[in-house]
Design goal:
The protein has six helices and no strands. It is mainly alpha-helical and 126 residues long. The protein has one domain. α2 packs across α6, α3 packs across α6 and α5 runs antiparallel to α6.
Length: 126
C-alpha cells in the first residue's frame, strides 16, 4: 500500500488547501475581521441599499404585473414584463454586490480560509 493511501482523506485535503498561495498568505498575515469595525463608506451603504431595493422590485413587482395582466386580460404583460422585471431586479442586486460586497467578501473569505486551515491543522496534529 502506498504512503499516500495511509494518510486519511481529510489530512490530504487539509494539506492541499494549506499549500495554496492564498491560504499560506492568509495564515502568514493573520487575516482578521478588523475591517468590519470601521464606519462603512457611502459606496458600501449605497450597495446595501441597492441589494435591499432589488428585493422590493423583484417578486412584488412581478406579482403586481401578473395581477394587472389578469385584470386587463393582457397575458403578454406578465409574460414579457415578468422576466424583464426579474432581470432588472437581478442587475440591481448585482450592482449592490459589486458596490458593497466585493471588499468585505474578500476580507471575510481570507479570514474564513485562515480559520479553516488552522482548525484543520490542529485536528490533524491530534
Amino acid at each position: 500500500m502506498s504512503a499516500m493511501r495511509r494518510i486519511p482523506f481529510i489530512a490530504r485535503v487539509v494539506d492541499r488547501i494549506a499549500d495554496t498561495p492564498y491560504a499560506r498568505k492568509a495564515v502568514e498575515e493573520k487575516a482578521d475581521l478588523s475591517a468590519f469595525k470601521g464606519k462603512p463608506s457611502f459606496r458600501v451603504l449605497l450597495g446595501v441599499f441597492l441589494i435591499g431595493f432589488s428585493y422590493v422590485i423583484g417578486w412584488p413587482a412581478i406579482s403586481a404585473l401578473t395581477a394587472l395582466s389578469v385584470y386587463f386580460g393582457e397575458p403578454l404583460l406578465a409574460l414579457v414584463g415578468g422576466p424583464v422585471m426579474y432581470g432588472l431586479s437581478h442587475l440591481v442586486f448585482m450592482a449592490g454586490m459589486v458596490l458593497s460586497g466585493a471588499k468585505y467578501s474578500a476580507i471575510f473569505m481570507r479570514w474564513a480560509t485562515r480559520m479553516l486551515v488552522e482548525k484543520l491543522n490542529r485536528k490533524k496534529a491530534l
